[in-house]
Each structure stands twice: as structure tokens, then as C-alpha cells.
Automatic annotation (TrEMBL):
Its cofactor is Mg(2+). Its EC number is 2.5.1.21. It comes from Apiotrichum porosum. The gene is ERG9. This is Squalene synthase. Belongs to the phytoene/squalene synthase family. Catalyzes the condensation of 2 farnesyl pyrophosphate (FPP) moieties to form squalene. Keywords: Lipid biosynthesis, Lipid metabolism, Membrane, Steroid biosynthesis, Steroid metabolism, Sterol biosynthesis, Sterol metabolism, Transferase, Transmembrane, Transmembrane helix. The chain crosses the membrane at residues 479-506. One of its GO terms (biological process) is ergosterol biosynthetic process. GO terms for molecular function: D-glucose transmembrane transporter activity; squalene synthase [NAD(P)H] activity. PROSITE patterns: SQUALEN_PHYTOEN_SYN_1, SQUALEN_PHYTOEN_SYN_2.
Amino acid sequence: MGVAEYLTLAVTHPGELRSMISYKVWADKRDITDATELQYTGYDRDTMKKCWEFLDLTSRSFAMVIRELEGDLARVVCLFYLVLRALDTVEDDMTVPNDVKLPLLRAFHEKLYEPGWTFSQSGPNEKDRIVLVEFDNIQKEFAILDKGYQEVIANVTRRMGAGMADYAALATPERPVAEVDSIADYDLYCHYVAGLVGEGLSGLFAASGKERSFIADQLTLSNSMGLLLQKTNIYRDIKEDVDEGRGFWPKAIWSKYGFKSQEEICEPARVKDAQWAANNMVLDALRHATDALDYLTLLKNQSVFNFVAIPAVMAMATLDVCFMNPKIFTGNVKIRKGQALQIIMRSSNPRDVAYMFRDYARSIHRKVPMDDPNMLKISISCARVEKWAEHHYPSFLEVKAGANGAAAQTGIDPMSTDARSGLYMELVKANRAKQDAERREKFMDDLRAKGLIRPKLDDPEEEKAFQEKMSKLNEPEDFPIKLILGIVLGLLVLFGGSIWALVYVATNYLDN
């Protein structure tokens, strides 16, 4: 970016410029070349160094988040990504005939155990062909992974290759690239190319010990996470796919708007119908948003959470920036760099991620035209995202960091004008009053148990018996006059005898 672009950003999106500066100055980025990291990253080995270079060449965005994963998980995920990138390159390459492509896709997982294997038949213009031409470097690093990691990667590669081959086999001489027909076919294709990636990552997270073992069994949520990202990319890349002869938008969607082929979607004369079809694609992608949020709440490792959350939020941001944007039919539309860095810095906890999902859903909802055939359905999908966020993280509550390492505290936001704040305070007061009453009653029960105060009797018969007993105890007794007279008489006799004894002593002994 030049000076003029930075000045423009400072005026139009000052928050993004601040995020760019903060990320540049303060972000603590992992250095995989550092001597203390080599035991985890393998950067001191020529083959692994090559793999890190391949990662930078094939995906700058994923490369950034993969590097930040803790310990050896970064290296494992890097290799997982490159293996699947190589597989995907075979599938996408239109210059490779099906008699070569299909067997290779089905047997690609076997190449992971074949030292020295490479593939040089990719077209010269295939941008990621290097991962196939120099696949032997990837294979050498795969061979030294722990067996648990190898099994996860090989299993996903086998299933993905078979699915890709099934899809590619639908092509005909008249139609070299098979089209996706129904929504079910679309979901299945996206499962093969992305949902399985989600399942594989969950397996790797569990195998690393950085996440709990049950995360590997969350197949539905893992699949939805992958589908959200894949469907966003398919929606955004319509122009590129049409130009290269690929067809991933399902016929069940674009045929509803009068298109006879996917190529017609990018015709300038049909832009309004194309926009309705594009909005329908967004509607389909949004149904995976709440599953993605559910998945994120299960993660406990910070680096894993960041790795999963950042692409998910970027997918929502991409859906927003492309929604009702006719530029997707003429070129590639991406989110701004400053916006991407803002997402990276904020995607650190489930609450903030949920709020970003909510904000992008609100933005999409604001842009839905009244005459959109799917206006109501899109509105409901956006509302589901907002409902999820409000249910799990009510916006009228604020979270404050605890002092001196103490746990975070949650309380009412004093600046909130939300009507629920008053209701919440009434509930808090009622709860406190209930607790106070319970404490008082417990204290009184203790006194009753010790006999210091009268017991609490709910049975009328027991209460009557208790009152009769107390009445008898309080009745006046007959005055014991005889006893009193006897005591007085005894005292007089004792007193008189004492006097007589003194006089007797005095008269008989003192004179002598």
C-alpha cells in the first residue's frame, strides 16, 4: 500500500489503520526459524524448509495462521495442507485427462508411503503444480510424523480422493467439467473437498493432545466448519471458475432464475437475475454459521482456537463484502487488508467471534432488497446468527478482566440501554432476597434445634399440644406455707440455742 492508500484508509476506516499499526508493532508472531523452535518446526531440515516455502507459495492467508499453532502441530497441519493442496491441484487441472486423473485421485493416499514419488504432468499454467513436481519433499516429512498423525492424514486423503474422483467421473466429452445439480450434491461435493478437511483437523487436534479427545468425534460440526469456508469461496470465485470452465454453483440454484448454463451468470445483461442467484448462494452458506460457532465453543487451546476462528470470521466478512456486490461477476472481490488484520487481532475468544458473526449478519440483512425472492429466508438466517450470539453472550453484560491474574468478572454494562438490564436486576434482587430469607430461616432452625426458642410447628394438633404444655408450665403452684413455717421455726430454735450457749459460757467460765 502506498502513502495515498494509507491516507485514504485513515479517513474512511481509521479503526483498520490502527489495527494495521498495532499488528505491525505489537503482534507476537512465531518465528519458525528460531533455534528454540527447530525441534517443533523442522526448519533445520532441507525437506521441511521446502515445505514451509511451498506453504507460502500456495496460501499466504493459511500460512500465517498455521505458523501460530503450538509446538509440532504447526508442522503437522502444514504437511496436511500441502498433501490436500497437491490432491486438489490434480482435481482442478483441466489439462490432465480423466484416464490419468481418476486413478491418481483414488490412489493418491498410497503416494504418501511411496518415497521419491512426484507428478510432472500438470499443465504449465497450473499455479500450484510445484507441490506435485516436488512432492517427494512432502513425502519425506510425512514419513517421520507420528503414526497417529499419519493415520488421520492418510484416511482423509483416501476419502477425499475417492470423492473427487466420483465427481470428476461425471464429466462427459460434451461437458468436460461436471456440474453440481442438487443442493444435496453440492453439500456432498463440499464435504469431499472441505468438510473432510474439518474432520481431519479435528482428528489432528485430538491426536496432538492439545484438544480433548472427543473433538475428533464432532463430525457434523467439523463438516459445517469446512462447508462454511468452501461455500464462501465458491460463491466469491464465480467469475474465475466460469473463465476456467469449472462449475460449482449448484444448478438447483441458478436454474431458478432462468439461466440455462453457469456461464450465463456472468453476462452483463443478466446482472439482476445473477444477483438473486448469488444471494441464494449466500443464504445456503449462512446455514452453517451457527454450527461453526458451536464448534468454536468446544476448543480449549488458544492457538487452535485462533487457527479455526480467523478463517471462519473472514468467511463471514467475505459473504458480507460480496453480498449485493455486482463486482463478483467481473472479478475477484476480497476483504481489505486492514479488515483482515482487525479480524486476526479480535478473533481470540468465542464471545468476540460471536459478535463479529452477528455484526456481519446484520450488515447482510441491511442490504437485502425488498424484492429479493429470498428476502424473508435471508432475514431469518441472519436472525439465527444474532439469536445464537445473544443466547450465549448477552450484549447487555460486560466482561472485565480480573485483577492480578484473577478470573474475569461478568456484570451489567452500565452504559447499556437494553430493556433486559432492568429485568436482570430485578431477578438479581429477587435472588438475593431469597438467599437472605434462606439464611435467616437456617439460623432460626439452629436455635430451635438447641431449644433456645420455640419450635416451628406446621401441624395444628402438634401446635395445640405444645400450647397446652406451655400453659401447664406457666400455671402458679400452691404456696408451701407449712414448709416455710418449719424452716422459720427451725431457724428460731437454732438462733435461740446459740444465744443460750453463749450466755452459759459467759456466766460459768468468764467469772473464773
